[in-house]
Amino acid sequence: MVPGLLDGLNSYASRIGDTVYAVLGTPTIGDGDAIAYPADPQLALLVHEFHHACMNPWVDAHADVLLPAATRAFEVVQARLQALAYTSPQILLYETMVRANTLRYMRSHGEDAGFRRLVAEDTGKAFPWTPALADLLDVDARDGGGFGPETPARVAALLDDWARDGGARIAEAERQAADRASGRSRSRPPPPEPARRRAAQAIGAGMP
């Protein structure tokens, strides 16, 4: 792992010979503050970048099978992905495989909070199919080896399923995620009475 002190928030991985280097962008800090790398998000980011080194070549090797389905999925979420600089179906595939395998890692290592955070993040960034793909890849790699010869076709079929009917399944997953987030907001307990009184007074509402 290499701290990317001159790369801003950009992170990436590079393979040199048999060694993979993950360069992690530096989190935003205030003037005079010490640089800090929070463990939970940095672990997920490290795993994510390491996976690019092996998943990008895998996608390239199976592009003939994967790209038609990825193109259909990309057409559904293109506007949102381009806003994130994910500008092609091939990049969608890179991110899809990396994000799904990052979920697999977090789940298999008991990082439950990190897993849930990444699922929500993937859905918010127009990758709502990654949990389903993580389940599929767990089955394909259940013997501890790499993916089998049928894995590319199975990944393509999953993307086709999510893109079908104008992305109806994508829209439904995003709606459910929004409902869950809204439910969490509504379920938060009100602040203690003194805090409520101070807040009301601060905005001039007054409280009896």
Please tell me about this protein's structure.
By secondary structure, the chain is mainly α. It has one domain. The protein contains seven helices and three strands. The protein has helices at 39-61, 63-83, 89-108, 112-124, 130-140, 151-187, 193-202; strands spanning 2-4, 12-16, 19-25. The chain has a three-stranded mixed sheet. Strand 2 and strand 3 (19-25) form a beta hairpin. Helix 2 crosses helix 3 (89-108) and helix 3 crosses helix 5 (130-140). The longest helix is centred in the last third of the chain and has 37 residues, at 151-187. It starts with a strand and ends in a 6-residue tail after the last helix. Mean pLDDT is 84; it is low at 190-208.
Main features:
208 residues; mainly alpha; three-stranded mixed sheet
Quick description:
The chain has a 3-stranded mixed β-sheet. The protein has helices spanning 39-61, 63-83, 89-108, 112-124, 130-140, 151-187, 193-202; strands at 2-4, 12-16, 19-25.
